[in-house]
């Protein structure tokens, strides 16, 4: 095991989860920020190109030592988790789906994970988990009630965020059911693989729409840096790290706190107002999250 992994494993899980929520939520704000400077797929493609190049020296040795079959499996999981998820959510926003509605659908990830594990793999989940997720969904809907607008997008575009969320849910369940525990890869190695496989996908998607070369502007550079460092290295990296140490139900339930944290980001960066409904919804989501976490502790006791 890597020395860095040993050190990270000593960090309390609740602290890692708090950092995960903060950085995961920054991704939605980053999409809004980026939209003012460049096409969303252009920002995403260069975000992954830079990450693929920048992270490679740190993971080259473990990538060379990982069996080809394991690498191929992680590439497919990475394509679902990163490219599939972002293409759905960002693609919906680009087609005219309101950003708040797309983010709200994405934050229903815990429900998607539970449904897939229950109906596809016949896993049994205690009533406390279902009750917790129900409260989490209710709290998320209350927090984002003002964001539930239909907008002017074509009807098919509203399915894109749903498809993106389900893509990440499938990758989450598949990863957790991999008996070799990440195929021996560190979270950083997994993050590089996901960036490596996503870069050509988004480059191709952007090529179908127009310009693929980076824009020479401060706004574009800031957009790429923000989404690469906070959303990808921070949010996605911590997501897989937490998943390695806990269950999908617990890790994804923590993301029910993403909508209010996203709104706090928006308040700090764009001056968007906060509301009482946000506080009520956050409290309900937190209660649901605690039910899921408490049940997980009982099962591991």
Report on the architecture of this protein.
The structure is a single chain. With 301 residues, the chain is mainly alpha-helical. It has a domain at 15-126 and 150-244. Helices cover 77% and strands 0% of the residues. The chain contains 13 helices and no strands. The protein has helices at residues 3-9, 13-35, 40-65, 68-94, 99-106, 109-119, 127-143, 159-176, 187-207, 218-245, 248-254, 258-270, 276-300. The protein is globular. The protein starts with a helix and ends with a helix. It is a multi-pass membrane protein. It is found in: Membrane. It holds the Pfam family EamA. Residues 18-143, 159-293 form the EamA domain.
Helix and strand succession? HHHHHHHHHHHHH
Mean pLDDT: 83
In DSSP terms (H or I, runs of 4 or more residues), the helix count works out at: 13
Q: List unreliable stretches of 5+ residues.
A: none
Helix and strand content put the structural class at: mainly alpha
Specify the overall morphology.
globular
What can be said about the biggest beta sheet?
Answer: none
Instruction: Count all strands and give the number.
Output: 0
Radius of gyration: 18 Å
Amount of helix:
over 70%
Distance between the termini: 26 Å
Strand content: under 5%
